[in-house]
Amino acid sequence: MSRWTDYAENKLADMMRGTAWSLGSSLFLGLASAASDSSITELSGTGYARQEMVRELATWAGTQAAGSISASIGTSHLTSNNAAVDFGDAGAAWGTANYVVLYDALTSGNALAYFPISSQVIGLGDNPFFDIAEISFTLGLSGGVSDYLANKLIDLIFRGQTYTWPANTYLALCTAAPTNSSGGTEVAGAGGYARQTLPSTTTFWSSTNGTGTTGASTGGTAGEISNNLAITFPTPSADWGTITHDKQMDASSGGNMLFYGTLDAPKTVLSGGSFSYGINRYKTQIA
Fold first, then answer.
1. Predicted confidence (pLDDT) at residue 141 exceeds the cutoff of 90
2. Nearest-5° angle of CA 274, CA 277, CA 278?
3. Residues in Cβ contact with 115 at an 8 Å cutoff, skipping those fewer than 6 apart
4. What are residue 167's phi and psi, to 5 degrees?
5. Fewer CB atoms inside 10 Å of the end CB: C or N, the chain?
6. What is the pTM of this model?
7. How many angstroms separate the CA atoms of 65 and 74, rounded?
8. Does residue 27 contact residue 79 with C-beta atoms inside 8 Å?
9. Which residues make beta-bridge pairs with 224?
10. How far is CA 78 from CA 1, 8, 118, in A?
């Protein structure tokens, strides 16, 4: 399964803090002998060059199926190459390719994600070639990121489709678990309950660098941000039930789920009681 680099996770985290991620018209695929979230060892040698992948619907598949050229509406959180990728004939030994790496520039630039492949020792005259759908990248598949958000981000990053992060998101409480595809059971309608506004700012959200930070995310390694200010729900005028999960929405009512999570421990909220998150107690992570 593919992994996102620290650089990409930090860019995604800062997008949620109100800083847009500016990408060029193309991404580029390279080959590496070693790869981790923080370090890439790229191959080199006569004839080696990264391969351009234009950020458009035709280049990368929608999450609904390999080969799709429509906007993503699937549940796989996965995109793959819609055209074969041919690195050409090696003019010298390039080394051993263990990963395909996604970059934001033809030379230098930043590695965004990496995908493990069967080891290929590339010598003089060898031709590394990847067929349609042989290279794939996933985002937030293991839970916590909704299908809706994964589709929007995959189409933004890989496929050049416009998506603007909302100026505010809204925290909702649930008495039954959400999933990637469904929103669970929200408390909505009970005794003064209302979703709480989470401003998409560097003041409200910490950077990935650590608790309470407000600058750009540059040193973080987990793609995690947390609340710099307390989040306090209204005092209940009726019982809300037992809260087991929360979810982050893009509207104060209705709207689309972006993230969801499980409380450290269920909490029964009764009339006249309280529910809040102290500083650094509500965390959002993308990886």
1. no
2. 115
3. 2, 99, 100, 101, 102, 135, 136, 137
4. -65, -30
5. N
6. 0.96
7. 8
8. no
9. 285
10. 10, 16, 19
Q: Rounded to an integer, what distance in angstroms lies between the CA atom of residue 253 and that of residue 269?
A: 21
Residue for token pair 């489709």: 161
**Residue 223 to residues 39, 128, 190, Cα–Cα distance (Å):** 16, 32, 34
Q: How much is the CA Rg of the chain, to the nearest whole Å?
A: 21
Can you read off the two tokens belonging to residue 50?
Answer: 């990264």
Mean pLDDT of the chain: 96
Q: How far is CA 172 from CA 175, 256, 257, 282, in A?
A: 10, 12, 10, 12
As given in the structure block, the two tokens for residue 180 are 């990637």
The 10s digit of each residue's pLDDT in 221-238 is 889 999 999 999 999 999
The helix (run of H) or strand (run of E) holding residue 148 is helix 147-157
Please report which helix (H) or strand (E) contains residue 150, including its range: helix 147-157
Give pLDDT, residue 189. 78
Rounded CA separation 32/142 (Å): 25
Report DSSP letters for 83-133, one per residue: S-EE----SS--EEEEEEEEESSSSSS-EEEEEEEEEEEE-TT---EE-TT
Side-chain-side CA neighbours of 183 within 13 Å: the count stands at 19
Amino acid symbol at 71 = A
pLDDT for the residue numbered 287: 72
Place of tokens 């999450």: 63
Residue pLDDT, tens place only, 10-53: 999 999 999 999 999 999 999 999 999 999 999 999 999 999 99
* Per-residue confidence (pLDDT) for residue 220, from 0 to 100: 87
Gap between the Cα atoms of 112 and 101, Å rounded: 8
The answer to whether 224 and 239 have CB atoms below 8 angstroms apart is no
Residue pair 10/194 in contact by the 8 Å Cβ criterion? no
Lookup: tokens for 142: 């293991």
